[in-house]
Amino acid sequence: MAKPRWHILREAQGLTLARRLPVRFDISVQIPLPKAHKLYLAQQIRQDLWRRLQKLRGFTPVVQVIDYDHGLLVRAGGQVQGAVPKQHVEDEIRALLTNSSHQSRWLTQARLRLQSNNCPNEG
Length: 123
Description:
Oligomer: single chain
Strand order of the largest sheet: 1-2-4-5-3
Radius of gyration: 14 Å
Number of domains: 1
Helix content: 25-40%
Distance between the termini: 34 Å
């Protein structure tokens, strides 16, 4: 059986990575990050977000990365089927996004990808 595909919605200022369309943010947290390869950054965050919240029933991750000032604005969260303790889940997402070791790993890899591809549309 084939794996379901991820939707990559490219917009003028960035992109959104989602499993389902239309994109829905029932829960989300935003943080600014330095410039990096948007798609690779979104994929890395999505993987860690899923690992952290995979036991949350009906959760489907969504990550949006857009240009913001001299860096990027990352919005991570997603769709949840059913009732959830919204504040608790958003605190979990915030803890993930603000974790310095995670950020370091994401940005190191995404910047390497940006440099190796030299993709102006992704940076």
